[in-house]
Write a structure and sequence with these properties.
Blueprint: H1 3-68, H2 75-97, H3 104-136, H4 141-168, H5 196-205, E1 215-223, E2 228-230, E3 233-236, E4 243-250, E5 256-267, E6 272-282, E7 286-292, E8 302-308, E9 320-327
Parallel strand pairs: 3-9
Antiparallel strand pairs: 1-4, 2-3, 4-7, 5-6, 5-8, 8-9
Helix pairs in contact: 1-2, 2-3, 3-4
């Protein structure tokens, strides 16, 4: 073997050694980078999962406290809370669906949490439907069925979340500064109160949880308002125009839609003008005001304004109100 051949062989060996070292270095860098990336993804997932769990815990507490105190509440309070909790668990379920955890163990845990969130969502939807139906029609079979299935779904969700906790018990979350909270939409200590038949019974025995329909004419006032009176009758000043403001109160426990309010303007000479306005929606325990503009009134004339509602609710005594006034003949 010549000297040049020996040199070429040594050069090839040197190149191979360098390549091997470079490959090892690159592999080590990749492994470190991959480990750092997986750790970052793990932290991001756990941070999101704990945030969702905190929200679910809040929803569970609100729902379970409502069921326990059901016979102390009114229908508007129950309906409003159920609507808020349903919106809350829907948002949380969507947030969790967007997560993509790294590693097989964390993926299995995530699957359990996703099942819990889905079942809680389905459970609240069913429970809300059942409770609202039973408050309108006691012992309605569809309402009972929806409530029973809703409670079953909530229990399944509680069990799936416990599986999630069992799968994550060995994970170190101390660096996140918080831990996964316990969540129970159906608390074990109050389990008997979460039977559909017991909830239906308490709804039936609690008058405030039933449906009450009662719209009322709460007030009629004029703009501009009266500056004085004549023999006890309000006298409004002469002005470019006169408006009537009619306030309607929903004193019932359910919202009302498409409510027609009629205003009659009757003069002392027997002439009558009728106006109609519609309220698209008025929530329970709320007020809505309607303005009837530019009333056709003459100076020096006595008038009566009569505001009426269509009636047919549970209290007809407040479906009409009137106001007598005189339009001044001097500005």
């Amino acid at each position: 073997m010549t000297f040049s051949q020996i040199r070429r062989r040594r050069r090839r060996r040197s190149v191979l050694v360098v390549l091997v070292v470079v490959a090892l270095l690159l592999g080590a860098v990749y492994a470190i980078t991959r480990a750092q990336s997986d750790e970052q993804l793990r932290r991001e997932y756990l941070d999101l999962a704990i945030t969702v769990a905190d929200g679910e815990e809040d929803a569970a507490i609100r729902f379970s406290e409502m069921v326990v105190r059901l016979d102390e509440l009114s229908r508007p309070a129950v309906v409003g809370l159920l609507e808020e909790v349903e919106e809350q668990v829907l948002d949380l379920s969507r947030t969790l669906e967007s997560a993509d955890p790294p590693g097989d163990r964390l993926k299995r845990a995530h699957t359990a949490f996703a099942i819990a969130a889905q079942k809680w969502k389905d459970g609240i939807i069913g429970a809300r439907s059942g409770i609202e139906t039973l408050s309108e029609t006691p012992l309605d079979p569809d309402g009972m069925g929806a409530l029973e299935q809703g409670l079953i779904n909530l229990r399944v969700g509680d069990a799936a979340y416990q599986d999630f906790l069992d799968l994550t018990i060995e994970l170190d979350v101390a660096d996140l500064g918080r831990e996964f909270p316990p969540i129970a939409f159906v608390p074990v200590e109050f389990e008997l109160l979460f039977e559909a038949t017991d909830i239906a019974r308490r709804i039936f025995l609690t008058p405030d949880l039933g449906v009450l329909r009662n719209l009322a004419v709460a007030d009629i006032k004029l703009e501009p308002g009266p500056l004085g009176d004549s023999d006890g009758i309000p006298v409004v000043p002469l002005s470019d125009r006169l408006d009537a403001i009619v306030t309607i109160s929903n004193r019932g426990t359910i919202e009302e839609n498409d409510v027609v309010v009629t205003l009659d303007l009757i003069s002392s000479d027997g002439a009558q003008t009728t106006f109609d306005q519609e309220i698209e929606l008025i929530e329970a325990n709320s007020l809505t005001s309607l303005t009837f503009t530019d009333l056709p009134v003459a100076p020096g004339t006595l008038y009566e304004l009569v505001a009426t509602l269509p009636g047919g609710d549970d209290d007809s005594s407040d479906d009409m109100s009137s106001l007598v006034f005189i339009r001044n003949d001097e500005s």
